[in-house]
Amino acid sequence: MVDRAITRLTSLAISSARFSYFAAGYSLACWYSQVPAVRERLGLNDLELGCALTIAPLTTLISTFLYGRLSSDAHKGRRLSISLVLLSTFVLGIGLADSKPWLFISLVLLGISNCAVQIESNSRAHLVEDVSRKSFSLSCHGFYSVGVAVAGVLATIIPGNNAGPPMLLFSPGLVVLVGLGIFRIQPIQEAASREAAEASWSERTVRLSRGLPIVLLPGLGMVLLALESTVNGWHSALALENDPGADWPGIIFAAYGTGSLLIRFTGDFVRRKYGLLTTFVVMFPVSFSCFAIYLMTHSVLVLVVFFFLLGVALGIAYPDALRLASLREGSGSNREISTVIKFGTLGVVLSNPAIGLTSEFIGVGGAFLVLNIVALVAAGPVAVKLVSSAKEMAFGTRRESAGRINR
């Protein structure tokens, strides 16, 4: 009976972690899907729209500088529940905004709540994974993508209402309240969670988390999210650069999303078998080679393959960086994770203006190439450390075997 109760609690904790990701992705995607309707209803010009789209990520970035230091170990489950409720509430606030100041204030509050949701949901998923000894946290990121996809589908079904609040922006609050009622986010005993984490991961992964330079994970997070943001915002421009009349942008983005979802729902097995960041270290050079072929041939089919491979390479890279950060820090601490999120958000904020400025001189393809080279350089130290950790383990195993033989 006790084992059955523990299994039930573990299953509920895993389901609640997955729900938190789904709710976050759904809430944010509802807002982004309704940007044109909000713009038309409030009469935003291009400059005001640019400011509106920058406010939330910039506020999230600023919030991460403080959140990891101000948050304590107490009431972590309650903080995640409250953050999800606030996130959906501020999405509704955007929908109800009847003036530009109200919209901008709602976006500031949305950015703050998004910061809290990111840090708390990632920390909780890693903690549940450590305590339960079950690999599932990457599927949480898959559920985030599912939330985005569901919001996108509903945005095409639910009719727009330019004269009043977009109806879709009322739904995140309902989803969150129903979900919290079903998947109750219960507190988890965090004592010895660090020991549980290290015991549940291979020695190679623990060596990697301790051996990476302290600045590498935040820098890698910044590059990874900058690349993801560039794909989201500039894939159409890249596809149309050499063939303006083509209908490829949707297919290209679908290929990227397919690759990302594929690895996110299989990545828990992959990362357990081969280690954290191994997929990125192996697949990103392959996708980079494919992009180099595209630049030489300008074949759109090659570009589709590149985006699929890039989706596989990036699909779990950022979650892996967050997981390594959680292994580096003590029980219950959020500082390492919030630092990686902070620099990742900085990459999102800087990526679009940087790509726009660079493309003025060398084109969108050249700007993509520069960013891919930066990411390839960032993968180098990780690859070196992965190989050295494997060699250290192999040497240690041989020495232990030799010792047993001598005895």
From TrEMBL:
Its main location: membrane. InterPro entries: MFS, MFS_trans_sf, MFS_Transporter. One of its GO terms (cellular component) is membrane. Keywords: Membrane, Transmembrane, Transmembrane helix. GO terms for molecular function: transmembrane transporter activity. It comes from the Bacteria. It is a multi-pass membrane protein. The keyword DNA repair does not apply. The keyword Transmembrane applies. It holds the Pfam family MFS_1. It is found in: Membrane. The chain crosses the membrane at residues 12-35, 47-68, 80-97, 103-121, 142-161, 167-185, 211-228, 248-267, 274-294, 300-318, 339-355, 361-384. SUPFAM superfamilies: MFS general substrate transporter (SSF103473). PANTHER family: BYPASS OF STOP CODON PROTEIN 6 (PTHR23514), INNER MEMBRANE PROTEIN YBJJ (PTHR23514:SF13). This is MFS transporter. The lineage of its organism: Bacteria, Bacillati, Actinomycetota, Actinomycetes, Micrococcales.
